[in-house]
């Protein structure tokens, strides 16, 4: 029943997507060629010619939507994740359409109209999918489209899972009961005990369920095998909750594989994936080159003023700890006197640090002293956005004082970061800074980097970042 409901719902989604794509193309054509927004008199093709594109656009988009997983069940997928997939799929879709038009030498189609179509389609599809979720969750709250499950194991693992289901009725799960060898046939917190694992076959014949959730400790592997065998005999899907799940709660764990052996990664780090890692590295190189070209006059003037305002080298180098706990030399314009005491190197730099020169105070306040770090990015030591790297002295200290401090070294350190734009910079709370760093590492997306990048400018102008 659940599968047939899912197929019907997917059919409705496909119809809705076709409607959205068609409406988006029509609205984009109207905005470009009829509305007063573009009063330039351009009329390349009539509406019929553009509507003919639908014979190409609709099949291409539906295939791309399927590839990006936009027709997967909604029960376990977050809406934010779906929005990302909608944006990426529309980017790929419009790129393919433009490539097809270019290859076919169809040069009369308006690029402005196609760009408008992309924006409208992305917006309308996001609204469409959000509305579909709202309708589904409302229906599930009222008892429709429910998935009936049995939990094998009424211990702490099973109870935790049952509480999650009870707290969020929108998930659409209904617990038929527990199966447990150590509880009498009564109930546990209002959920009936249906019997023991030895009675599993009879229980599944008596109750119509869609899934069986196994919440037994690993020491009960024989009973787990027996339950799975019975469920497969009855044709019912099983899922297992590992009894060590408390060790990985809140870290978005995911499965990996080594030559057929399943592995559970206890912490989800998007930048561990080759595609995301390559994407971020490519953008780092491209943007660093562009930024260095743009700010090169500022860097030349800064180098000259550093040299004439105080004796010593122009560039200050310091050892920092980067990705994989590897040490590297970080570059900055020198902002302190070259004869500053070496013993102070392990102290925080304060706002009124006597070691700073007058010009050094200015370039630190405006973050101009950080510009040479774009060369660190080109070398591969750093990224434009990421957790700020720290000196070995503090790494050794904080790894013993702050839980999960060393997680920040799973990714390349950055010139700017989530902690810094939120105000946790310099002599501030290390716990708050690490919490921000871990949040960034686990929730990284290209859009998150863009957000932090532009927030950096706001932080600089607001408080001398």
TrEMBL record:
GO terms for cellular component: membrane. It is a multi-pass membrane protein. It comes from Acetobacterium bakii. The lineage of its organism: Bacteria, Bacillati, Bacillota, Clostridia, Eubacteriales. The chain crosses the membrane at residues 12-31, 51-71, 83-103, 109-127, 285-306. The keyword Nucleotidyltransferase does not apply. One of its GO terms (molecular function) is phosphotransferase activity, for other substituted phosphate groups. Belongs to the bacterial sugar transferase family. It comes from the Bacteria. Keywords: Membrane, Transferase, Transmembrane, Transmembrane helix. It is found in: Membrane. This is UDP-phosphate glucose phosphotransferase. Residues 280-462 form the Bacterial sugar transferase domain. SUPFAM superfamilies: NAD(P)-binding Rossmann-fold domains.
